[in-house]
Queue: 2 jobs
Job 1
Amino acid sequence: MKLSLERNAPMPKDCVLVEPEGTVFLSFMQTGFIKAVSRTRYASGDAAATGAFMVSSAQPKDGEESDAMHALTFVSEVAGDEKIVILERFNTKDDAEAAWSMVHRSLRRYVVNERRKRAWRTFLRYVGVPFIVLAVGMAMVRYLDSHNGSLEALNAIMRAAGTMNGTQASRNLSQQGMTQPAGSASATLVDTTRSADVAAVSQMASIHFGLDNQPPEKTLYVYSDPNCPACKQFESHITDLAKDFSVYVLPVAYQGDDHGKAAAALCAKDQQGAWVSALGGAVSRDGSDCLNGYTGVKANMQQFERLGFNSTPRVVSGTGFIFPEGAPAKMIRLQAAEK
C-alpha cells in the first residue's frame, strides 16, 4: 500500500468579482486562451461616459487557420475618446458568451447589494438612530425617576414623616422598654447639590439586623410586610446583607391592611425573633394588642406611601438611593458599592 503525501494541484476556475469601489476583477483560467488576470474599472467623475462588456468575434483570412477568434472586450468612451480593450480570448463563441454572462451576473449582484445597503443606511439614519436615542433616553429618565428619584424631594418627605409620626412613635416605643439604635430606620439623606444641607433624622419604628453604627453607605432600610410572600423569600437576603450592612426592617401593612403581625413584632421583647416568627405566620403573644406597635406601623405606612412605593419589599440606602424593585442581595451589594 502506497501513501501519497503530494497535494493535488487545484483545478483552474473562471472567476469574476466586483470589488467594493466598482472595479471588476476577471480571471478565466479554465476557458480562457490568454489566461490573464485583469481589473477593469468604470470611469468616474467628469470623465465618466459609457462603458460596456461585449463579445467580439473575428473571421480568419482565406487560407489561414487561427485559434481563439472570440474575445470578451470592454468598450469605453471617456472624454470623447472610444477605447476597446480585449480582456480575454476564447476558442469558442459559447465560452466567450459564458464569460460575458458571468460578468453580467456579478455586476447585477453588485448593483442589488449596493441598493440594499443604501436603503438600510437611509432607514438607520432617519428611523433606526432616532428610535434608539429615544428609547435610551426614555429608559434613563424612567430609571432615574423610579429608582433614584429626586433626592431633595425625598429629603422633604423624610423630614415630614419625622415631624408628623416618627418622634411620637419612638417616644411610645421607648416607654414599652424598646431600644432604638442611634441610627434609626430613616436614613440621613444628604443633598449632593448642597453638601452642607443635611436632612433631619426621623425616628421610625424599626427592627435592627446586622452591624451597628454604620455610615450611610453601609446602612439599608427595608420596607417589609409579614403577610407578603416575596418578603418571606427576601428574608434570606436580609440575613446575607446583615453580614456587611446595618439593616433596619421597617414593618408595614401593605398586604390586606393587616397590622397585627407587624405591630406585635415591634412590641415584642425579642424583636428579631418575633419578626422571623411573623414571617412564618405566627403572632408574638407578648406583643399582641400593642397600641404603640400599631402607631409605628401606621407611621411606616405613611412614609411608604409618600415615597410612591407600590410593592414590598423595597430597599433604600442610607444615602437616599432607592434600589430597583426585586433586587437581590448580590445586586444591592454591587449598586451600594457604586454609590
Job 2
Amino acid sequence: MVKGLFEFLTLCVLVFTGRPTHASPLELNPPRVVVRYGDSVSVNCRTSATDHGGMGWEATFGGTGLEQDVNIVTWTVDNLTDWTIEPKCYINLIDGEQPVKVLPVILYKTPDSVSISVLRHSGPMVEGTEYQLQCDIQNIAPLRNLVVKWYKGNEPLDNVTYSNVSKTPVDVSPTLMIIPSRDDDGAQYRCRAELDLGPEGPQPPLVMTSEPLDFTVFYPPTFSRPEAETLDIRVGEEMTLNCTAAGRPTPLYIWQSSHVQDALFTPPSKLPGTYTCTASNLIGKISKTFTVNPKPKGSSRTFYAIIGSVLALALALIVIAYFVYKQRADPNSTI
C-alpha cells in the first residue's frame, strides 16, 4: 500500500511538472549581493554536474553566453547601474533539462541630502501649540531598506519604515507632530536616514543626518513665588519688592499705576499699602500683590531703658542668690 502511494505521488509530480524533482546542480557564490550604484560586482556560478551540455549567465549586463566544458562561470559588471537587473545562471543537462538559479541583487544609493523643517511656520514657536516637522530625504534607494529616525538632542522620538518594493531612487518626506513646552526652548531636533541592507550590506548601516533644527519657544510669564506677600516696614526704612518672573520674550513689569518696567521696586517708606505688579509679554500676563504694613520705629531712649531694667533685675537676682547661699552655709551667722 505504501509503495502504491509513493508511485501515485511520483506520477502526480510528473503530471503537473512534466519532470521529476531533484536538487539544483547550481551554486552561487556569494548567494546574494548588495552593490552601491556604479560599483563593480562579481559572482561565481558552480555546478556539481559532471556531464552537461554547457552553462552560462543570462543578464542585461555581464551575460556570458553558453560555455562548454566548464564547471564554473563568472558574472562580472564593472559599473552596475541597472536598478532592476536579475542575473540568471543556467545549465543544459544531458537529459534535456535546463535548471536556472536567479541571483538576488540589491543596488543601493545613499541620499543626496537630508534636511529638517517646520511645515507652514517660521520664527519662534508658542508653548502648547501643535506643529508638524518634516524630514526631506532626496534620491535614495531602495526605499524598503530605509529607516528614518527622529531625535530631540540625543533622545530618540520615533522611527519610520517603508514597505514599498520600488528599487529605483525616490524622494520621501516623513513628518512628526510635536507640541513644544518651555522645556523645548533651546532644544535641537534632527532626523536621520539609515539604510539597513542586511548582513551582506555595509556594517554598520549607512547613515546620513540632517543639520539640527534649533527651537525657540515663547511662553507666558510665571512667578517663582506666585503667592501674594505681606511685609512689615518701619517708617523711614527701605524695602525692595521682588516681582521677578520667567517668560519668553522677557517680561515687562508695571507696578500699580506707575509705568515702572522693572522687576524690583522700592516703594516710598512713608506710603505703606497694597502694590500690584503685572508681568507681561507677547504670550500672556500675570499679576501679584504685595501688602506693606507700617511698623512703628522705636526710640533710642526706650531701647536704653529696656537694657537698664534688664541689668538691674539681673543684679538683684545675683545679690539674693548670694545671701541665700551664705545662710545655708552658716545657719548661726547673722546678716
